[in-house]
Specification:
392 residues, alpha/beta, Aspartate Aminotransferase, domain 1, Aspartate Aminotransferase, domain 2
């Protein structure tokens, strides 16, 4: 095997990046025989049959050439129609929508397109640990806003304080329903934040990938309030159990979408034909599919929250996504890594340490209930046994 020549180096910017704490921990505990992993945010259900069949037909029909850079027009029209119905914003499929390789690429293309060196990106935490490394790669600075004291919501007052302290703020990132807490912003919350964002002349990058999975609350997009400032990101990974299809999209005003489209083309050229065919089917004939998943997830959420509360672990009651964020036992203090490792090695249950999601996550653990009922029941029994043994 070749060894790199000793006089060759690396990008210092990339070298300084830390790998995802979620993946590092998952890789470590995955080697434990018999472990029940509730670490990763991936639906355990299958992609709907009619969606799979659309992908198969695409392959059989030799749909194997470069798609348009922004995505197939039929798909962009389907996305436009879906967003008109769901968030009441009318995006032009010709010029205001780009189909991406998952929401991850959409986030990358967006941050590269809007930032200049030294611009500041405000990121409420705890949150999925993608946004700040991407901001770093885009030569932007990031400001992590700890929301733990406000029930994991970025309040308008807190946002005003952050903006006052960071005069080069260019954009605010919102991810809601939020990974890892499952917290959903109310309509009033969003209206109040929108006023502050507009007042200070900021973008809002709104990642609403979990918007179809809410419980007892109707999702309200900030793009509905300030479409002229919003860059809307979503996809079909969570709504239709299609994580492996890597199909996301980004929508916004024409002027910024021209720039995002440039970056997207340089990053990936275009997305795959079969995945786009599947997404067309999902967003045309599969709009009711997420409701089937939502009912299952809500039942699991109720079970997990009740079981954790009964053994003394307080939880942030999730109103969306498929995670429970729970406070670890007092004996561990804020050391969520030790708690998660002890639970994994002693009782073979994998959960993610809250500190992997940035400030405010310390002293918590994230449990994904996107797993079978059998796994969840077994895992919660093991957690109960673990806590009883640790208390003695």
């Amino acid at each position: 095997m070749p060894e790199l020549a000793k006089n060759l180096g690396f990008s210092q910017k990339v070298t300084d990046l830390k790998a995802s704490g979620i993946r590092i921990f998952d890789n470590k505990v995955s080697k434990i025989p018999g472990i029940i992993k509730l670490t990763l945010g991936e639906p355990d259900m299958n992609t709907p049959e009619h969606v799979k069949e659309a992908a198969i037909r695409s392959i059989q029909n030799n749909d194997s050439h470069y798609a348009p850079q922004k995505g197939k027009l039929e798909l962009r029209k389907a996305i436009s129609n879906f967003l008109k119905k769901s968030i009441n914003v009318d995006y032009d499929p010709e010029s205001e929508i780009v189909v991406t390789v998952g929401a991850t690429e959409a986030i990358n293309a967006t941050l590269f397109a809007i930032t200049n060196p030294g611009d500041q990106i405000i990121i409420p935490t705890p949150v999925f640990s993608l946004y700040w490394p991407v901001a770093t790669l885009a030569d932007a600075d990031f400001v992590l806003a700890n929301t733990a004291e406000d029930n994991f919501i970025l309040t308008p007052e807190h946002l005003e304080e952050i903006i006052a302290e960071n005069p080069k703020a260019k954009a605010v990132v919102l991810n809601y329903p939020t990974n890892p807490t499952g917290v959903e912003y109310s309509k009033d919350d969003i209206k109040a934040l929108a006023k502050v964002i507009a007042k200070h002349n900021l973008y809002v990058i709104t990642d609403e990938i979990y918007s179809s999975l809410t419980y007892g609350i109707k999702h309200y997009s900030i793009a509905t309030e300030i479409p002229e400032r919003a860059i809307y990101i979503s996809g079909v990974s969570k709504s239709h159990a299609m994580t492996g299809y890597r199909l996301g999209y980004v929508a916004g005003p024409k002027e910024i979408m021209e720039q995002i489209s440039k970056v997207h083309g340089l990053m990936v050229t275009t997305t795959t034909d079969a995945s786009q065919a599947a997404a067309i089917e999902a967003l045309t004939n599969g709009l009711d599919d997420p409701e089937n998943y939502r009912k299952v997830y809500q039942k699991r959420r109720d079970f997990v929250v009740k079981a954790l509360n009964e053994v003394g672990m307080s939880t942030v009651k999730p109103q969306g996504a498929f995670y429970v964020f729970a406070k670890i036992p007092e004996k561990y203090g804020q050391d969520d890594m030790k708690f998660a490792l002890d639970l994994a090695y002693k009782k073979k249950v994998g959960v993610t340490p809250g500190s992997a999601f940035g400030p405010g996550g310390e002293g918590y653990m994230r449990l994904s209930y996107a797993s079978s009922d059998e796994n969840l029941h077994t895992a919660l029994n093991r957690i109960r046994e673990f806590l009883e043994e640790e208390a003695n």
